[in-house]
Design a protein that fits this description.
Elements (H helix, E strand, L loop, with lengths): L9 H12 L4 H8 L3 H14 L12 H42 L11
């Protein structure tokens, strides 16, 4: 049996943090909002650190994750280019081998002369 995570709106989180700032204790606000006190601490820290940008993620990735994703996408792009280059090189080598095989079929190594 899986337990789904509750999602809280930006307004709900801001209201909970405002209650803390107006003198409510962590325990009181946690009980009233039916959330864990650690969640309130995290919301308070996010609002303090990020200001108006806090709580905008609603399922979106964080900036550090976006940077990592962009780095990996660049790497995949470079590798795709390398693969294409190597594939063309291989085709060229195979073509040269086929041409060489066709031109050397008729003239193999000189046979030894009988005495």
């Amino acid at each position: 049996m899986s337990v789904s995570r509750r999602k809280f709106s930006k307004n709900f989180k801001e209201a909970a943090v405002r209650r803390l700032e107006t003198g409510g204790s962590i325990a009181e606000v946690a009980r009233a909002c039916e959330v864990d006190p650690n969640v309130l601490h995290r919301w308070k820290r996010e609002l303090r650190d990020l200001g108006p940008e806090a709580f905008t993620s609603n399922g979106k990735k964080r900036a550090s994750e976006d940077g990592r994703l962009a780095e990996l996408e660049r790497k995949v792009g470079r590798q795709a280019m390398e693969i294409d280059f190597l594939r063309r090189c291989l085709q060229s080598v195979e073509e040269q081998r086929r041409l060489q095989a066709l031109t050397t079929r008729g003239s193999s190594t000189p046979s030894s002369k009988k005495k």
